[in-house]
Amino acid sequence: MTIQRQYMLPNCNLVLEGLSADATDDPLAPMAMIVNAECQIIGQQGSLKGGRDFLEHLITAVSGYAQEVLSGIAAPERHSKGVHQPVQIKAGEGGYHHLLMWPDTNPSEQSTPLEIKLTTVQLFDLVEAIDQLLADTQTLPDLTLSLKPLSRRYVKPQEPLVQRATPVAIGVSTLAVASVALFLIPTPKFEPEAAGSGSDSSASTPATTAADSTPATEPTADAAAPTSSDAASAASALDEAVNAPPITDADTLVELQDQLSRQLRDAWITKPELEDALSYRVAVSANGDIVGFKYENDAALANVDDTPLPKLAYIPLDPTEAAKEPTAQFRVTFTPEGKVEVEPWRKPDEATSSTPPATPSLATAEPSSSQLAAITTEIRDLQTLETLQKSLSTDIRDKRTKRKYEADLVYRVRLTESGAIAGYEFTDAVSQKHLNSTPLPSLAATDADPDQAMVDFRVVFTADGVLEVSPWKGWPD
Amino acid sequence: MQLHSPPDQSTPLILDSLPDPDLLQDECPRRARMQIDLLLLAIEALDLGASEAMLVASRELELKDVIRGRVGLWLLRSSNPMRRFSQRRPLKLIEAKAMVLIACFLAKKLTVLIRQLSLGYQQLNDKHLGLEHHFRLADYLSRFRTHFRSRMNPSRAGVIAYSTDEKLNALALRLLSQLLLCTGTFGAQRLWSSLFDGDVA
């Protein structure tokens, strides 16, 4: 005898017929097996009938659909084409739900399903009937409610993938475009400030050492090594410069002499202990650059590094080419007392000649108006200096005619031991201009022996008319 | 030695009927918080005395420790990010379970009304009549709209989606169907499971 169970709800009737585990006739025994299940919706035509399989499919479909209504998220596996579910419920219009059932187990879609249109209340009653069945431990106790939340895989994100990927794509593309644009901007070029770089390597090293502004990254040994080559290249440059056309304009010469002496004085900071004076022959171009220098005595060669000449010298790239530039020659003397003397170059055998090689404008009959060469023997005796100073002052005062000048005139006057004026020279353009109005030209003697002991005096004709005479190198201690 | 500490507070047994979902973090996801708050809102729209009834239900179900009074309930409900004064606190699973149980408890008490309204809506739809023809339904919908607008933050995108009356009505009717499903035998379990659809691994 079959056991019947009925779950009656206002809108749904679920009737189960089955057998108990042990074949007893007790209707209250638990129904372990089901023979027939029938589900009828009150108010609808047709009912759903079937066996255990049908019941299970019905339960799966209804339960899943109820979850879908509750959460609003549908499980796509229930509608997958791969596995054909015999019982399906789909949402319809107007708040209706369509329950579809394919009666035979044949999974072909061509057979027409049985369709039942359910209102929400009817759906709920169906769900409730099934829930009551599942809750009933006396009927099919193996059937229980199994609910699992849907996995994240089955949920489509609210925004479509395209919309979500757009900001990422924009960001990455902007980064790419910006990096390409920045890559195209050229890197700034670093040009070390070179005073000049020779085609030969020896000429380039003095150029780098000449660049005071660049940081001294080269070791000092490196800088000290090519000193001989320094001098050699400078000397070769000077030799070429000798052949250059000389600058003949007196004003330019005076200016260049001033500039050179100022430059050397400013640069010669560390004054070393010198025994002898260092004498160089320096070639200067029209704009004041030292284009070459050569030693005149042995001491000059040995101590060339102690002078600022190597640093200041601008060795041109091609000395032969630079030789076409007009240059002026000067004799530069670095004295042991720490003074720099610059005078226009005169060959040693012309030291006593009266004609000045570079100042034709001063070509007068007056002797010894030319520039002074270096003193060979110098008078340093205080007594003698005093005597000489007195006699020189007296001589000049006696012969002075003009008293007042526009500016101070400074002259360098060379005296022998006897008090005769062996030579004199002007120190700037103003003194040169007014030279002839001073008594110096007339006082100078012409037959001074260069090997005599001599000393230089500084004679100043001030603008107010005062005469000042003092030793050029100062009073000895 | 006597222990002076208070006895352990075990979680109420009723909460064990709802299994813990397999979540990445120990708190409720956004959608779950929103759904619970909206369901409780719908219950309040159905029945005027619902707020008091919630507190009574929490006492009857012995959930007083989880939901600590009126303010506690308000705090829990305010974890809904759409609220005006949304609390930046996470909603613990045990608190969510308590609220689910209270919602189903109250829904079961309102079964008749819910069924009536659902049927009424179906009939109106079939006859293509406006919603104002069913007094009780219109009452529910207008109350729902008022509650929603007064409590939800209007600058949130999720709230702007419900800016018109029609959309709010549709939301209210959807919630009504969901409440109907909550009145069943396994209503609480079904609701609890549906809260985490799409959020578990």
Describe this structure in words.
The complex is a heterodimer of chains A (477) and B (201). Chain A contains 13 helices and 16 strands. Chain A is of the alpha+beta class and 477 residues long. In chain A, strands 12, 13, 14, 15 and 16 form a 5-stranded mixed sheet that branches. In chain A, helix 1 crosses helix 2 (120-135) and helix 4 (201-210) crosses helix 6 (227-242). The N and C termini of chain A lie far apart (151 Å). Residues 203-226 and 350-368 of chain A have low confidence and may be disordered. Chain B has helices at residues 30-46, 50-60, 69-77, 93-109, 111-126, 135-151, 157-160, 165-182, 187-195. Chain B is globular, with a radius of gyration of 18 Å. The N and C termini of chain B lie far apart (48 Å).
The mean pLDDT of chain A is 78
Of all chain pairs, the largest interface belongs to:
A-B, 28 and 32 residues
> Which regions of chain A contain 5 or more consecutive residues with pLDDT less than 50?
203-226, 350-368
The H/E string of chain B reads: HHHHHHHHH
Query: Per the principal axes of the C-alpha atoms, what is the gross shape of chain A?
Result: rod-shaped
The class by helix and strand makeup of chain A works out as alpha+beta
Largest sheet of chain A: 5 strands, mixed
**What is the distance, rounded to the nearest whole angstrom, between the alpha carbons of the first and last residues of chain B?**
48 Å
Number of helices of chain A: 13
Offer a concise description of the structure.
Chain A has helices at residues 52-71, 120-135, 161-184, 201-210, 220-224, 227-242, 250-267, 298-302, 309-312, 319-322, 382-399, 429-433, 440-443; strands at residues 3-8, 12-20, 31-41, 47-50, 87-91, 97-101, 114-118, 278-285, 290-295, 327-334, 340-344, 377-378, 409-416, 421-426, 453-461, 467-471. With 477 residues, chain A is an alpha+beta fold. Helix content of chain B is 59%, strand content 0%.
